[in-house]
Amino acid sequence: MKVIFDPDIPEDFKEDIIKAIEEENIADLCKVCGGDTLYVAFLEGVLDVKCYECGHSYIEIELAEE
């Protein structure tokens, strides 16, 4: 699947986000609409990984400060 990132997500996080997506074994095509692109949105400390075409949410990743 292709991945499009919200413009607010820093470049240095993108590689780790892609690894997390791969660990979740998300299928190559959306199970709802058949789309092949994911969108990673950043909302209030949570990354929402969803289908770019229909908005079906696959995973949410909560960010915490270290």
Summarize the structure.
Helix content is 20%, strand content 35%. It has 66 residues and is α+β, with helices and mostly antiparallel strands.
Give the low-confidence spans: none
Structural class call reads alpha+beta
Biggest β-sheet: strands ordered side by side in the sheet: 1-2-3-4
Count every beta strand, where a strand is a DSSP E run of 2 or more residues: 4
Terminal CA distance reads 30 Å
Shape: globular
Supply Rg: 11 Å
Mean pLDDT: 89
Q: How many domains, in number, for the residues?
A: 1
Helix content: 10-25%
Question: How would you characterize the overall build of this protein?
Answer:
- This protein starts with a strand and ends with a strand.
- With 66 residues, it is of the alpha+beta class.
- The longest helix has 13 residues, at 11-23.
- It has one helix at residues 11-23, and strands at residues 2-5, 37-43, 46-51, 57-62.
- The chain has one helix and four strands.
- A four-stranded mixed sheet has the order 1-2-3-4, covered by helices on one side.
- It has one domain (2-62).
- Helices cover 20% and strands 35% of the residues.
- A hairpin with a 5-residue loop joins β3 (46-51) and β4 (57-62).
Can you give keywords for this protein?
single chain; 66 residues; alpha+beta; 1 helix; 4 strands; globular
How does the SSE layout of this entry go?
Blueprint: E1 2-5, H1 11-23, E2 37-43, E3 46-51, E4 57-62
Parallel strand pairs: 1-2
Antiparallel strand pairs: 2-3, 3-4
